[in-house]
Amino acid sequence: MEKFISFIVKHLVTDPDAVSVERVEKEGDVVYRLRVGDGDLGQVIGKEGRTAKSLRILLIAAAARAGQRARLEIVDLAKERDAAPQP
Asked: Does any domain span residue 51?
């Protein structure tokens, strides 16, 4: 499933090498955490979140076909850096 998400997102962004997908088990579901390069977050979210919603629908459908329940989290690297504890 990681390859599926990665394939789609790499065709949407300007820096495909910065795309990474992490699989995390959470509350009986599989959560896929998507990270993209700086400046590409808007491309993945799209106008009014339409692209992100479409990605989530595709993921849910593909996971259901495989007998799984899945969610997609799009990680904002800037917020993640700000929230990280400073040494």
From this structure: yes
Tell me the two tokens of residue 2.
């990681």
Q: Tell me the torsion sign for CA atoms 4, 10, 13, 18.
A: positive
Query: Is 29 among the domain residues?
Result: yes
DSSP code of residue 13: S
CB 56 within 8 A of CB 29: no
Task: Give the strand pairing for 20-26 and 70-75.
Answer: unpaired
CB 47 within 8 A of CB 25: no
Q: Amino acid identity, residue 12?
A: L
Nearest to 19 by CA among 33, 29, 79: 33
Q: Which domain holds residue 23?
A: 2-79
Reported as a single tens digit per residue, the pLDDT across 8-66 is 999 999 999 999 999 999 887 899 999 998 889 999 999 999 999 999 999 999 999 98
